[in-house]
Amino acid sequence: MDLVALYILLALLLLVTVVLLVRISLRISFGSHWDVVLKLGPFSIPLTGGEEEGDKLPEKTDTPKKDTPKKEKKKKPREQLTFADIRSLVPVMWEALCRALGKMRRTVRIHPFTCSVILAGDDPAEVARQYGWASTAVWTLMPRLEELVHIPDPHIHLEADYQNTKTTISGEVGLSLRVGQLISIAWALAWPLLRWYSKRSKQTAQRRTSPQPSGNES
């Protein structure tokens, strides 16, 4: 009985090892909608089925009914990432990512790598400040990333648009690595992200509970 259990354990270990060594590819397209495709050998598995706004079916209109008073539930405002949040998050995630990729010795491959970011907003001075920070971040981080990962032909376009108010981001990224490497990277990024989110939530709660200065004070 013990010998049978040993054989089963060895078979499971062999199966797990084979799965971790399997090489997979992820192709991510982003812009007006997200499209993620997982490639496993000759098989392509779409992980998202994002529909564009024009492809949505028209909503059914019901017959008008008499207005009945309803109690409106207060909805909590969704917390959105600000530019300050992104600026504080990037160094945390970058440090963890470098540690994880440094152990893999350029066995991870990124191709294609195209990204276009057009910054816009209501305040031209703020847009210019964001553009300066983004330019510094890109040209500082990209050489280091190319040392850690094999990127044959990267294309990055960064622009400041002072005529519009909405920032647009689009591009396509292809990632090729082993299953074990993907799990290792996800694990390395999870803890710093959770710690950053916990710290940000506490700071947000403190700002909400702290007394606001009144404008009547002289």
Number of helical segments? Answer: 4
- The chain-level mean pLDDT equals 83
Residues in β-strands, percent: 15-25%
Query: Could you give the order of the helices and strands?
Result: HEEEHEHEEH
Strand count, sense and barrel status of the largest sheet are: 6 strands, mixed
Number of strands: 6
Alpha-beta content class: alpha+beta
Tell me what you see in this structure.
- The protein is α+β, with helices and mostly antiparallel strands.
- It has a domain at 82-204.
- The protein has 4 helices and 6 strands.
- Strand 2 and strand 3 form a beta hairpin.
- It is globular and about 70 Å long.
Key features of this structure:
single chain, 218 residues, alpha+beta, six-stranded mixed sheet
Secondary-structure blueprint of this entry?
Blueprint: H1 2-21, E1 23-30, E2 35-40, E3 43-46, H2 83-102, E4 109-119, H3 124-148, E5 154-160, E6 168-178, H4 179-209
Helix pairs in contact: 2-3, 2-4
Task: State the gist of this model.
The protein has 218 residues and is an alpha+beta fold.
